[in-house]
Design a protein that fits this description.
- By secondary structure, the chain is mainly β.
- About 10% of the residues lie in helices and about 55% in strands.
- The chain contains nine helices and 45 strands.
- It has a 22-stranded antiparallel β-barrel. It has a five-stranded mixed beta sheet with strand order 1-6-7-4-5. A four-stranded antiparallel beta sheet has the order 13-14-17-18, with no helix packed on it.
- β15 and β16 form a beta hairpin.
- It is globular.
């Protein structure tokens, strides 16, 4: 049940609603209701002619988009060329009503729309679906420089003509259109930043951003060109303490954790680390627009971005599972501390053999996107033809290098104190700060391991649509839009892996020329440990030959192919019901999907050299998606929106992989497997939306929206018996000694379409300049939203059982409450704002070391950002802006836990970032 809490944000929205009601009542007097509509329109037009800049320009641009839309949308509009209101697109999106962000490496990156994970939404660039560098189809928004994006529209309700629509929402990023500008514009920007965690290892805390944009028109404004470039170099600084998952009573009940009482929840290890590195990105955008007449416009878009992230986690790690390499004495926990929830919270662990580890990650991403659109008139018919192509590649290198004190064994006694609201503490008895005492050796975790993941995603599309005027007899409708779109998407992943073994020199310390400055783990009670050049050490002292042909690696490579043909018919509504104007659309979309996957599996029964076997599977299906959007325009600038739709979201790409791990129980003859499922149907839902919006021209608005989604199914991993393995067992060769026949049915663990449920939510929004309430507050304003979500959908995720348990859990990405508040001041070139986004606990998605998706409980966050700036409006410095910006002002930690908050998994701080910047436009 939705239970909005009484707090300052809700109070501010309630006050705004009350003011809106009073304003609406005042404007709905008999004199006003009899006013000439043309006069009202003229007043609004005159209001639009007032020149606004900075924060107000962005706000009013976004309000205009929302007000004019026939669907329920939210919008972000750039304050000026190259100036979205936040440092990243994801952070701007996270401030919109009904949207929430999950931080990854300290940056807002993963966006949930209306309480559903990113799996349920899609992202477009200039109206075209784009590829992604991840394993799935969801976009990582920090790949798109905010300086090159002019605006973003989030469609919360679809219409039949929206191609590539998502189930929870569709995010459309737009770049500039040069012919929309009346003159040449050149904009330059630069930023210098510092992270509060300071320098560590070989990485300083400083970063930079700079951008340049050029917009011009030629040949009597029939040809327009826009070019933009953005560069970012951001330091990666992170302090973290993490505990092993799962927290369990299994080993304490069996007595395998000496000193800990049965029934105590215990984690089998703990680590503390300092991560350092740099994230660099270069992006280029270009648009060429040709409009020789009002009857034809041709637009060519190109977008390119390259990103490289290199980081190393230098960490101290203790295994507490009674595994120390087999040395005596083994583990013993003295003075165990256990809270009232039967959770182990501290003690002294003896007989352990800690490691010092270097975990190196290098990731290079590249995205290219091209689109060519032609809009022209053939008589009264408007025709639009579009071609698009995008491709993404990701190349990674993951290396781990392990050190231990020698000669073996060097067992230690370690003090432990676990905390759920701060860094847990580790107090070793031995000294781990001297690099001359730590050796690359065959440690209890081996000498090292490495991976080389690679992803390629390619999307080709073509669209043809036409808009025809409706006959006068159908006066309710203005136009009929018909169209067809074809998209072909192919995604391939490879993940070679392998042990990193000692070279012929044997055990060795790391030479001084490969050493960095030691890192301080004092935040976790440890002190300094060495930091070193991990790839340099691997190259000099070790041997690494990754492969993907080993029995346990074959199934990690796959290709998924989707061919989707979309056809639609949409009637646009534009009529009058008495004094009430009615806009909207009614239509239906047909999606024909042909999905398939190609991969390999390992069949150990085959002769040597023939164990790798191909597998290819898939299916086709159709979805009919009717939709209705109505916007009733009442007097006093009030709008009531109503929407109905049937919606779908494509399954995760990695869930549709054909790859699997297969085997036969030689004692029973029963086959079994686990893997992906190319036979998945999409998520499907029926949706209802109602929204009330009160506008004050384009200066302000308040809104209340309710949404309801009936999810007909949900995709999650299930184990099913009696699965037909006929194709796989047909060539199975029984090994010697197997006497039972091979069965054709068995157990298969894979993603399947399961039971769905209901999702509902309430969104309250206000965007108000405060001089509407009290004239002396000119320049002050607020933007506020509160979202309350509720769902009865319960799923199970066996792949994440170690962190979220094996029972039913709520929807990933769903926060019951999400709040956003921005207070700003803008006057005479001076701007200041403070923004806060808050969300309650949720289940988030992360990638573990195995490269697999896993779920974890995430503690709700409260992120505060602030900015002050001044823009010179005249004289020699006209067009120059100076700014000071602070992100994550309170250094809010990122915390995850296992079922109960007193069983922490991660406690991470990324520090606050201070930015000094300058912009110049001429």
């Amino acid at each position: 049940m939705l239970t909005p809490k009484r707090n300052l944000l809700c109070l501010s929205i309630a006050v705004a609603m009350s003011m809106a009601t009073a304003q609406a009542w005042a404007q709905s007097t008999p004199a006003d209701t009899e006013a000439d509509p043309a006069a009202v329109k003229t007043d609004a037009t005159d209001l639009d002619r007032v020149k606004v800049t900075g924060i107000r320009r962005g706000i009013e641009g976004a309000i205009s988009v929302k007000k004019d839309a026939t669907s329920i949308v939210e919008a972000i509009s750039a304050e000026d060329i190259g100036k979205l209101p936040d440092v990243s697109i994801a952070e701007s999106l996270a401030r919109l009503p009904g949207l929430a962000a999950q931080r990854v490496a300290g940056r807002a990156q993963v966006i949930s729309v209306r309480g559903l994970s990113p799996d349920f939404s899609t992202t477009l660039l200039n109206g075209r679906e784009v590829v992604s560098t991840g394993d799935n189809r969801s976009v990582e928004f920090d790949q798109y420089p905010s300086e090159l994006v002019n605006g973003v529209t989030v469609y919360k309700t679809p219409d039949a003509g929206l191609v590539g629509q998502g189930l929870s929402g569709t995010v459309d990023m737009q770049t500039v259109r040069p012919l929309s500008f009346g003159e040449r514009v050149i904009a330059l920007g630069g930023r210098y930043q510092r992270n509060s965690l300071g320098k560590a290892a070989n990485v300083d805390p400083y970063g930079n951003r700079f951008s340049a944009s050029y917009i011009d028109q030629f040949f009597d404004k029939t040809l327009g060109l826009s070019i933009g470039y953005a560069h970012t170099d951001t330091p990666i600084q992170e302090n973290q303490v993490g505990l092993y998952e799962p927290w369990s009573t299994q080993n304490t009940d069996s007595g395998n954790r000496p000193g800990v009482a049965p029934g105590t929840y215990f984690s089998d290890g703990i680590k503390a680390l300092r991560r350092t590195g740099n994230s660099k990105r270069d992006g280029v955008m270009a648009t060429l627009q040709y409009r020789p007449s009002n009857a034809w416009t041709s637009t060519l878009d190109a977008f390119h971005t390259e990103a490289e992230q290199v980081d190393t986690a230098n960490q101290f790690e203790v295994n507490l599972s009674n595994y120390n390499g087999g040395y005596a004495p083994g583990l013993n926990i003295a003075n165990p501390q256990v809270n009232g929830n039967d959770t182990f919270t501290g003690g002294t662990a003896s007989g352990v053999y800690p490691l010092v580890r270097g975990m190196y990650n290098k990731r290079k991403d590249k995205i290219d996107a091209f689109g060519w659109n032609n809009a022209f008139n053939v008589g009264a018919v408007k025709v639009n033809a579009d071609l698009n192509y995008s491709k993404a590649t990701r190349k990674e290198l993951n290396l781990e290098s392990n050190l231990q004190l020698t000669p073996m064994p060097q067992l230690d006694t370690v003090g432990l104190a676990y905390r759920n609201n701060d860094f847990s503490q580790i107090s070793p008895g031995l000294n781990y700060s001297n690099p001359e005492s730590l050796f690359i050796t065959n440690t209890i975790y081996g000498s090292g391991y490495g991976k080389v993941p690679q992803v390629e995603d390619e999307l080709k599309g073509a669209r043809l649509q036409a808009s025809l005027p409706m006959p006068e007899a159908l006066s309710w409708f203005s136009d009929l839009d018909v169209g067809v779109n074809y998209a072909r998407r192919e995604k391939t992943k490879h993940q070679p892996e392998g042990n990193i073994n000692l070279g012929p020199q044997g055990d060795t310390t790391i030479a001084p020329d490969l050493q960095y400055a030691p890192v301080n783990l004092g935040f976790a009670g440890i002190g300094y440990i060495p930091a070193w050049n991990v790839p340099g050490a691997v190259d000099r002292y070790m041997q690494f030959s990754p492969n993907e042909d080993a029995s346990y690696l074959v199934s990690k490579a796959w290709t998924v192919l989707e061919k989707i043909t979309t056809a639609w018919m949409r009637a646009d509504i534009d009529t009058q019901w008495g004094e009430v104007g009615v806009r909207g659309n009614l239509g239906v979309q047909l999606q024909h999907t042909d999905q398939s996957s190609q991969a390999n599996y390992w069949d150990g029964s085959q002769p040597a050299g023939s164990e790798v076997r191909p597998i290819d599977d898939g299916k086709t299906y159709n979805d009919w998606l009717p939709s209705l959007n109505l916007a009733f325009q009442f007097p006093a600038d009030q709008t009531l929106r109503f929407a109905l739709a049937k919606q779908v979201a494509r399954p995760r790409v990695d869930q549709m992989r054909a790859s699997l791990e297969f085997g036969v129980d030689t004692s029973t003859g029963k086959p079994g497997a686990s893997g992906g499922n190319p036979m998945l149907d999409p998520w499907r839902a029926n949706a209802l939306d109602i929204s009330y919006e009160k506008y004050f021209g384009e200066k302000a608005y308040v809104a209340a929206a309710f949404f309801y989604k009936d999810l007909k199914s949900y995709i999650y991993t299930q184990t099913r018996d009696n699965y037909d393995f006929s194709d796989l067992v047909a060539g199975y060769v029984r090994p010697p000694g197997m006497t039972v026949p091979v069965q054709t049915t068995g157990t298969f663990s894979a993603p399947f379409n399961g039971k769905g449920g209901k999702l509902r939510g309430l969104e309250l929004t206000a965007s108000l300049p405060l001089d509407m309430v009290f004239a002396p507050l000119e320049g002050f304003g607020i933007q506020a939203s509160a979202t309350f979500n509720d769902s009865d959908v319960k799923i199970k995720d066996p792949e994440s059982a170690s962190s979220v348990g094996d029972g039913a859990i709520s929807l990933p990405g769903l926060s019951d409450r999400v709040y956003n508040l921005t207070a700003y001041f803008e006057r005479n070139g001076f701007e200041a704002r403070v923004s806060q986004r808050r969300r309650s606990d949720f289940i988030g998605e992360i990638g573990n070391f195995n490269g697999n998706r896993t779920l974890r409980y995430v503690v709700g966050e409260n992120i505060t950002d602030a900015q002050v700036s001044y823009t010179f409006g005249s004289g020699r410095l006209d067009g120059l802006s100076l700014l000071l910006q602070a992100s994550n002002l309170t250094n809010t930690p990122y915390r995850t836990y296992a079922g109960s908050k007193d069983r922490p998994l991660e406690y991470i701080e990324w520090g606050r970032t201070i930015v000094l910047g300058v912009n110049y436009k001429f």
